[in-house]
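Chapter review: from sequence to fold.
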Amino acid sequence: MTAVQTPDASASSSDSHELASFGYKQELDRSLGSFSSFAAGFSYISILTGVTALFGFGYLNAGPGVWWTWPVVVGGQILVALCFMEMAGQYPIAGSVYQWSKQIATGFASWMVGWIYIVGAIVTIAAVAVDWQVVLPQITTSFQFAGHSADAGLTSTKGGAENALILGGILVCITTIINMLGVKLMARINNVGVACELVGSSILVILLLFNAHHGPQIIFHSYHFGAGHPWGYFGALLVGGLLSAYVMYGFDTAGTLAEETNNPRKHAPPAIIRAIAAAATIGGLVILFASMSNKHILDKNVGLLGLPYVMKQAFGNTVGNLFLIDCGIAIFVCCLAVQTATIRMMFSMARDNRLPAGSAVARVSGRRRVPVVPALVTGILTLALLAINVSNQSAFYVLTSLAIIMFYLAYLGVTLPMLVRRFRGTWPKKDWGPYFSLGRWGMLVNIVAVAYGILVTINIAWPRDAIYNAVGTPHWYWKWAAPIFVGIVVILGTLYYYTVQVKKGEDVLAEHRADGPSLEPLPAMGEMAP
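The token string follows.
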């Protein structure tokens, strides 16, 4: 008697067979649908996280005109996303930019992309986690464990900075536990969180518009915000643009979860562009209408307390607190999604024998089929990073800036070799298949995407007190934090690759090969080993 496969089982079998063509066996839990794939990218971008956290900084530096940085960043990142859509359709493998770089660049380049991504992602987890300080203490000062009630919602005071790192540590512990319990639980929580964010942000846009005190023409005036900047108001926009740059990255997450997504060649590419399109639309309206609803354009409290202050000013405490709760949920699922993507990146590199203790790091645990070691490692390293910055009032902006830089560098590790291959005529591939392609527009899109990535990286990394010594006592090492940090990461990565990695080789570990021996999974949490 012949067993009849259900359509879902047949599709999953086909996906696993396709994965085997890249040399890997199916080990992760392939259970995500199209909405979960979209939600992972949207929650990583997370409008209510980024705009809530940095609206005050952007407004403080550039006023209402900071909105103009939004279409510039969105436009540039859409071009990068279009390049990524081509890659996601061709290489539906966990690890996104690392795996994509591996297919089109040298061994060293792809290893460096993965290394930079992991470091940048851990910094991002820390940067997102401390965002809770901007929101929770403004709901109730009961969340202000360090400092005084006057520090509530602030990261610029010593007590506010310390409390930010306490709340961040609590959040990281929670997300680490959830990620250890499997992708299904993570996806369910993430889907609910994204639904709350979509509904909440849409209502927020409407209410801000109905509470507007100014027309949209305010974005055409500088209101003297450029005073004191070497390049005038343009210089103010370059600094204030940190707001937009911080929000619009992480859309590659749908590709990162490819081995846990059903029919990823079909679902991952559109999930990338849908996530960035939804975030771009809602985020642009929130920034614009928040500026319009601010009663006094030169109100200094906007720069100190940001979007929460504007919301409470417009809606009152009760309704304002409801939106702050929604923002708190958005920050939570954003942190969860960032850590999830980081775990898959570590898993993907480890099974290629490209990380220390690769077999242990890539080991998939129990029936939940999740890499436990990467979850623990990302959680512990993030907590350590928070502890190091516990006394630094500039930690918030330093972590945010470093996270942006590292991701832009990792993205360039894909778009740049892709452009080289286009010039050589080896991309797109001859056996392209029925997957997303930019066609004749590919060269132009790719060129502008690379140029955009380079320019934004230089802008954010440029040493200046306006970003790296924005609050607290200025120090030269914070001003130069970006080139110092990036230099250390690149040097350490290069030394490791040529002294350790080259000797190890870069073959897929035997237990993870499609034709390799089976390896008994570790028992999941709560299970007993046989």
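Two observations follow directly from the output. Confidence is low (pLDDT under 50) at residues 1-9, 518-530. The domain at 36-504 is CATH 1.20.1740.10 (Amino acid/polyamine transporter I).
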